[in-house]
């Protein structure tokens, strides 16, 4: 029996009115095989939501409004890097049966493991900052709710999405995928309405920048795309997901997880690119003021593309904040349980991670500026998640037949080195 057929046994089979007779009953069931493959989809869609969180709205829209098509190449390169990173992360969980934080606890010295936990918690807080602020801005744009009460509403509403996990991982994943689908639809409509310049888009694929400010935005785009907290989450979603027996079946599941990553992050990458292209087409060089802020983008879309485009942007921003803050809270659980083997009540964790975002809203910091800077903080957390992933996935004693090929490890090391170099450059620029 093939692995898809074995997987399909976990789902109810459709009713058969007339049972096949004779040799025909030995033919493989194509619907059953399809259902078996669908079971493998889901973890990367949870990760993909974090790749289109409010931080992406801020960095991509700001990049398009300020620099036009200049940073298209950054969005594309960051998404390709994210695909490789999440593929390695999914494979790590499948091969070892453990999440990345658990592997760090098992294989790193205790002081280093504690330091890794501390920086991972800071990353989780920076993530929640972006997501809650983005959701609060969306509520203000849609309903006129002040930012501080809006942040409380978004932070509280995340409990409803998280509660779906008690009904099984498929329910949670499907809910997240539905929210992602609405976000995709909103930006697809806006992109078609805006009608970006295809030749200018192609020209934006040539790597170049325009000074330190564009480099800061490039780092923000990278931090908003290759999300360190999602590396931890994705590694926790794939262990023991599908029972397998033998290396052949593990490789089959690994192929299914790769497809999951390519589809989900391909969709997320398209949304990120659409954000930048809509802003570049509608605002760059237009003289419309304030289009490097979320509120300005909303107002600008209303003026250039119409009220429907502005409402679609705000709805997508709200759903993005709601879905991604749920994933961020889940990441906090994975981080603490993995690194420290400790659990704290969900209400306590939600409150602790929510407080920094509410403080930023209370003191009146510009929301878009706070979002962009939070993504830069996330970019500094990438190496601490990426280096262990690369180190573990190249070890045959941990990965077995799913160990990295030398070329895969080389590309992953190159990506890690580029991220570290970019962060060092930004730190030097900020200090100078």
TrEMBL record:
Query: What stretches pass through the bilayer?
Result: 70-94, 143-164, 176-195, 215-238, 259-280, 300-325, 346-365, 371-391, 411-431
Report the GO terms under cellular component. plasma membrane
Span list, region Disordered? 10-30
Lineage, top-rank taxon, reads: Bacteria
* Family from the record: Belongs to the NRAMP family.
**What InterPro entries does the record tag this protein with?**
NRAMP_fam
Q: List the Pfam families hit by this protein, alphabetically.
A: Nramp
GO molecular-function term, one example from the UniProt record: metal ion binding
Q: Could you tell me what this protein does?
A: H(+)-stimulated, divalent metal cation uptake system.
The entry's keywords: Cell membrane, Ion transport, Membrane, Symport, Transmembrane, Transmembrane helix, Transport
UniProt protein name: Divalent metal cation transporter MntH
Q: Where in the cell is it found?
A: Cell membrane; Membrane
Organism equals: Micromonospora sediminicola
Q: Name one GO biological process term.
A: iron ion transmembrane transport
What topology does it adopt in the membrane? Answer: Multi-pass membrane protein
């Amino acid at each position: 029996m093939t692995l898809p057929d074995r997987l399909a046994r976990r789902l109810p089979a459709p009713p058969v009115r007339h049972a096949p007779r004779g040799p025909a009953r030995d033919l493989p069931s194509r619907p059953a095989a399809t259902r078996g493959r669908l079971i493998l989809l889901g973890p990367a869609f949870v990760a993909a939501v974090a790749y289109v969180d409010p931080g992406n709205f801020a960095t991509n829209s700001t990049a398009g409004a300020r620099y036009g098509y200049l940073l298209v190449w950054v969005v594309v390169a960051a998404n390709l890097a994210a695909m490789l990173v999440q593929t390695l992360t999914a494979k790590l969980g499948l091969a070892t049966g453990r999440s990345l934080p658990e592997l760090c606890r098992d294989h790193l010295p205790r002081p280093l493991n504690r330091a890794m936990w501390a920086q991972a918690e800071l990353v989780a807080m920076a993530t929640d900052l972006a997501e809650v602020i983005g959701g609060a801005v969306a509520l203000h744009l849609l309903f006129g709710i002040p930012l501080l009460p809006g942040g409380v509403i978004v932070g509280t509403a995340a409990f409803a999405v998280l509660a779906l996990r008690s009904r099984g991982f498929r329910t949670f994943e499907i809910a997240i995928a539905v929210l992602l689908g609405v976000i995709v639809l909103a930006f697809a409509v806006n992109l078609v309405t805006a009608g970006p310049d295809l030749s200018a888009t192609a020209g934006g694929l040539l790597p170049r920048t325009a000074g330190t400010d564009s480099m800061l935005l490039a780092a923000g785009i990278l931090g908003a795309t290759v999300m360190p907290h999602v590396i931890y989450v994705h590694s926790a979603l794939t262990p023991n997901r599908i029972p397998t027996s033998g290396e052949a079946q593990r490789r089959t599941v690994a192929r299914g997880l790769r497809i999951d990553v390519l589809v989900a992050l391909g969709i997320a990458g398209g949304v990120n690119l659409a954000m930048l292209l809509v802003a570049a087409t509608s605002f760059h060089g237009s003289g419309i003021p304030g289009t490097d802020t979320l509120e300005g983008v909303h107002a600008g879309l209303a003026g250039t593309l119409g009220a429907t485009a502005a409402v679609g942007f705000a709805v997508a921003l709200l759903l993005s904040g709601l879905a991604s803050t749920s994933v961020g809270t889940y990441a906090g659980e994975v981080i603490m349980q993995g690194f420290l083997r400790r659990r704290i009540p969900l209400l306590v964790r939600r409150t602790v991670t929510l407080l920094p975002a509410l403080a930023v809203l209370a003191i009146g910091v510009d929301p878009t500026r706070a979002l962009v800077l939070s993504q830069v903080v996330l970019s500094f957390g990438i190496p601490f998640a990426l280096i262990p992933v690369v180190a573990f996935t190249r070890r045959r004693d941990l990965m077995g037949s799913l160990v990295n090929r030398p070329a895969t490890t080389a590309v992953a090391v190159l990506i890690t080195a580029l991220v570290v170099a970019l962060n060092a450059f930004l730190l030097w620029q900020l200090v100078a």
